[in-house]
Amino acid sequence: MLLIQRSQRAANAVRTVSPGGELFVASVVICMILASFGDAVDPTVLGEAGLELALFDLGGEFSVLAMRHWHLLQLLLGGAALAAGITVLRIGGTIFYRVLRPAPAGGVEKVPIKL
Amino acid sequence: MELEFFSAAFLSALFAIILIDLVLAGDNALIIGLVARNLPKNTQNKVIFWGTFGAIAIRAAMAIIVVYILNVPGFMLCGGLALVWIARKLLTPEPDAAANHLAKAPAATFAGAVRTIVIADAVMGVDNVLAIGGAAHGSIVLIVLGLAISVPIIVWGSQLVIKLVDRYPSVILLGGAVLAWTAYSMIVREPMLMAWFEAHPATKLVVAILIFSISLGPWYSERLSEQTKPLVVLLPALLVWMLAFEVAASVWKVQVDYLLARDQGEYLLEGLRWMGWLPLAALFLWVREQLIQRSRRTARG
């Protein structure tokens, strides 16, 4: 028996994982797949097509093509950064959506400003 | 391959080994407790010491043997495929996991107790040793260092590990992802396939997605609705279909690239490659639907 299976929550990790933890691991998996994409793509083919700069080389070392050389710790850090970015976008998007949402048509205070 | 000390590659491999050790660790502490519970007090301490020592020694020996075995052509591929299965098993929910165990009966003698502990550890540690053998990139220093850090944590700090994974179940998901990543790197490093992967670089991406889609299947399957659940089978099957054409093209020397097709047969083959999976997918969905309806009828009547 695995040690982790002595915990009911850990034995059912796919059901009990927190949204934040899930987002982090999903981001790490995305980084791993991007790294394998960098490993699979032949840079010379992209260079000939003139796509390397446009699509992949986002500047310096941080490009999908450079990710083929990333180690696990770098993938974890990349995943954490991606998860943080998605969280910020999600919060920002929610705030933006709330601001844009119109006031109820029958509402007394059409302009939500309190004096 | 010897990695430079404290380089990013070295620390990454060490982290992978410790993480794999923790998530795939057998319950050594419980086994030692179960086996030694009926022995006299003074013998219990000796059993705990020698049982732990034997377990660590057998684990280190197995890991070092695995490093050498993995150099044999074909074993890296087999090890990678085994890791895919191990990762999938790790993530599959087990509602009644605590019910079964390897060592239920207490031992009567000192030798019997130590033997039971060592055998139980060897049986439980096969998956673990295979995974760390793959993650260590052939470095014995890394394996010994990883075991030296993680085995004491598992044996004496098992409660700490249980608390950690209980508080953060995402560690298990991360362990599954790292196992899948290790499986991918083992399969693409397979000496028999290395030249083929160099000639077909795009297949590396297909293999990576295939490995992740199978290994992490239990995870994303939980998030899919009933209607979209067949994706758990269809996505890997489609990737295997595509991969099979690449393999067939190499084995039978046929042209499967539509830009390079010359005759009618090659165009037909190309059509089969891109469209041929559709009737099979439709057949699978139909059979699945029939089976669901039949099980519902059986449940009702």
Task: Give a quick summary of the entry.
The complex is a heterodimer of chains A (115) and B (301). By secondary structure, chain A is mostly helical.
Textual characterization of the structure:
The model of chain A has no long low-confidence stretch (mean pLDDT 79). Chain A contains 6 helices and no strands. The longest helix of chain A is centred in the last third of the chain and has 29 residues, at 72-100. Chain A is 62% helix and 0% strand. Chain B has 2 domains: 8-169, no CATH class; 216-300, no CATH class. Chain B has 15 helices and no strands. In chain B, helix 1 packs parallel to helix 7, helix 1 (8-23) packs across helix 9 (170-188) and helix 2 runs antiparallel to helix 5 (110-124). The mean pLDDT of chain B is 83.
Tell how many strands the DSSP assignment of chain A holds: 0
What gyration radius of chain B follows from the Cα positions, in whole Å?
24 Å
Order of helices and strands of chain A: HHHHHH
If you average the pLDDT of chain B, what whole number results?
83
Rg over alpha carbons of chain A: 22 Å
Largest sheet of chain A: none
Overall tally of structural domains of chain B = 2
* Helical residue percent band of chain B: over 70%
Poorly predicted residue ranges of chain A: none
Broad shape of chain A: flat
